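Q: Given only this backbone (268 positions), what sequence would you predict?
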C-alpha cells in the first residue's frame, strides 16, 4: 500500500462556541458531540480541535494536511467584526481557494456564506427554535456527494436554533434546501463547500438545555420555548440521514476533487 492510502484521514473542528456546563457534564464538550455525529469508529481518522472563538487557529502550513473542516454554531453574529470572526473569514477564503472541504453548521453556515461573498443578517421573521421540516431541492446536480445516498427524501426534519440567516448566497453557490421559515437552509459551492442552517449534531436534550439558558437570559419568550419543546416531544429529527449527508460530503464518497496547496495560492 502507498503512503497516501496508509495515512489517517484528518479533519478539524473549528469551534466557534464555548462549551456549556451541561454539554461538558454530559458529553465532555462540543468536540465529542461533533465527533459522535461525524466521526467514524471503524475507520482510521484523526480529528483536531481549534477553539477559534478564543483565537486558536490551525497554522497555515498545516492546512494541506487536512481532508476537511467543520465550522460549528455560535452565539456570536456571523456578520460581526470581532477579530476572531474576521480571522475565521480569511481562513475560510483560503480553504475555498485550496478547494478544501468545509462544512458550516448554523453560525458556520452563515460565516462561510459571508466569507465567500454572500450576505447574512437578522432573520426578518425572528427566532427559529425547535424542529423544522426542510425541503430538498429536486435537481441537485452540483451535489455529487448526495448521489452516494441510496434515496434522498423530499424533506427532512432538523433541529434549529438561530435568529440570523443567509440573505444572499455567494456567486456560484447553489441553494439545495429551504423551509417555510428560512429561504437558505442548505447551500453548496462546487463539491467542496456545504452550509447547513440547522444542527445535524444536536440531540434533543442539548436543545432543551439551550432553551433553558435562552429563557434565563431573557433572549426568547416563554411561548416560543413552550412551542419548541412541544414539537420536540411529538416528533424526531432525521439525525441519521443528516449525519449520512455530512459524512458523505466530508469523506468524499464518490468524489474526486483536485486540491490546491496553500503555497500554490500564495505564490501563483
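A: Predicted residues:
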Amino acid at each position: 500500500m502507498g503512503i497516501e492510502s496508509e495515512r489517517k484521514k484528518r479533519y478539524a473542528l473549528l469551534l466557534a462556541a464555548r462549551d456549556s456546563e451541561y454539554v461538558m457534564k454530559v458529553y465532555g464538550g462540543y468536540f465529542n458531540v461533533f465527533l459522535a455525529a461525524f466521526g467514524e469508529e471503524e475507520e482510521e481518522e484523526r480529528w483536531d480541535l481549534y477553539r477559534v472563538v478564543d483565537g486558536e487557529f490551525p497554522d497555515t502550513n498545516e492546512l494541506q494536511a487536512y481532508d476537511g473542516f467543520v465550522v460549528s454554531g455560535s452565539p456570536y453574529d456571523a456578520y460581526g467584526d470581532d477579530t476572531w470572526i474576521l480571522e475565521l473569514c480569511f481562513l475560510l477564503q483560503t480553504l475555498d481557494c485550496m478547494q478544501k472541504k468545509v462544512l458550516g453548521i448554523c453560525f458556520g453556515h452563515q460565516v462561510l456564506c459571508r466569507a465567500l461573498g454572500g450576505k447574512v443578517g437578522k432573520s426578518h421573521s425572528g427566532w427559529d427554535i425547535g424542529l423544522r421540516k426542510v425541503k430538498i431541492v429536486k435537481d441537485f446536480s452540483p451535489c455529487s456527494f448526495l448521489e452516494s445516498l441510496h434515496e434522498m427524501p423530499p424533506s427532512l426534519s432538523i433541529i434549529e436554533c438561530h435568529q440570523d440567516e443567509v440573505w444572499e448566497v455567494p456567486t456560484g453557490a447553489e441553494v439545495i434546501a429551504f423551509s417555510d421559515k428560512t429561504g437558505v437552509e442548505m447551500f453548496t459551492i462546487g463539491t467542496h463547500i456545504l452550509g447547513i442552517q440547522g444542527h445535524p449534531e444536536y440531540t434533543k436534550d442539548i436543545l432543551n438545555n439551550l432553551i433553558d439558558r435562552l429563557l434565563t437570559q431573557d433572549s426568547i419568550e416563554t411561548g416560543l420555548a413552550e412551542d419548541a419543546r412541544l414539537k420536540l416531544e411529538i416528533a424526531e429529527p432525521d439525525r441519521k440521514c443528516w449525519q449520512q449527508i455530512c459524512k458523505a460530503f466530508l469523506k468524499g464518497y464518490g468524489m474526486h476533487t483536485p486540491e490546491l496547496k496553500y503555497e500554490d495560492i500564495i505564490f501563483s
